[in-house]
Amino acid sequence: xxxxxxxxSTGSIxxxxxxxxxxxxxxxxTALAAGSNAALMEKQIREFMPQTAVMFEEKAAAExxxxxxxxxxxVLCGMDGLLELAAMxxxxxxxxxxxxxxxxxxxIAAIESGKTIALANKETLVTAGHLIMPLAxxxxxxxxxxxxxxxxxxQSLNGEKRERVSRILLTAxxxxxxxxxxxxxxxxxxxxxxxxxxxxMGKKITVDSSTLVNxxxxxxxxxxxxxxxxxxxxxxxxxxxxxxxxxxxxxxxVIAQLGLPDMKLPIQYALFYPDRRPMQGKRLELCDIGTLTxxxxxxxxxxxxxxxxxxxxxxxxxPTVFNAANEKAVALFLNRQIGFLSIAELxxxxxxxxxxxxxxxxxxxxxxxxxxxxxxxxxxx
Length: 381
Ligand code: NDP
Ligand code: MG
What we know:
Structural class: alpha/beta
Radius of gyration: 20 Å
Helix content: 40-55%
Bound molecules: NADPH dihydro-nicotinamide-adenine-dinucleotide phosphate, magnesium ion
């Protein structure tokens, strides 16, 4: 029996993780955490019977306590609750599927208590990779990728020597606005940005896919996960999302993982690694698909990608500023307070204003986040 806990159980990755639990009777859920959706959390508790449940928002935790008053589940709240869940005994794998930098501290607490991390929450590695990766090594804790591209890379590295890798080919669908020019982008609405051609995901990452900020975050995530330099990663736009990413070796061989776009595969692979479990579902029929195409990303139109590459090059606290500015700008865009192109403009404004710190501590990262939020508020109008 493998026992797991999920941070962000009510979200897109969280609910798909629970589908895998449903299909695999040797997985057991020990703890669940979410932000505010007490109604869905109640349903999940009744079905999966965890020992502990956390709602980040106090009001939601109070509501949940009433809803599950008849059950033997402990209900916690806030960051204290997330940290207690991360460090508690009684489970082996923490699935980090919250959205945003809120995942950093619980991930650190879980590593320090020896938990394997199945990582979907890329913002944690982007901003604190220099703290997380050495900490995981120190505690002998694996960080297993859930992000589809990184899972594909991880699968393509299987059995090979890391020093024989020459490049990582990180694929990108290009998002719903691929091929558009800046003038067209200026009028794109929230509804347009949320229409992803291949994947159904949470709102924040769907907007990040439309700006290509998601790809920039994934480049940084890959650098940390696989210990490669920026110059070893090539972003390849591949609109069909069939090749989930690939690794080129020193002899020129390219090994890739292919499949229909479905997050359940990378989630399940992380949960059972190094085993590969059977999974039901539609299979990839290459002859039905016929054509796979590739192109270079348009870094001039999609400034989210070029700004992210700049943040990655500059390093230190700059990826935190890039990420925090994006989190805030995307929230404003989803709230219809700013236009689509303002997302990248605000990120750039925050990055230009920031005084970079080399090798920031956790406190400095959280401070850079808070300062970025504050500065962005002051320039957004
Ligand atoms: P969703 O928005 O669908 O879900 C986010 C989850 O986080 C919800 O359960 C939400 O709870 C919870 N949450 C939000 N704030 C807090 C908080 N302060 N404390 C505790 N829980 C909180 O996001 P996704 O599932 O799409 O994405 C999750 C992560 O996985 C992101 O980092 C994303 O980049 C990454 N990822 C996602 C993919 C996908 O296919 N969706 C693919 C690859 C990576 P509630 O709803 O109750 O407020
Ligand atoms: Mg991805």
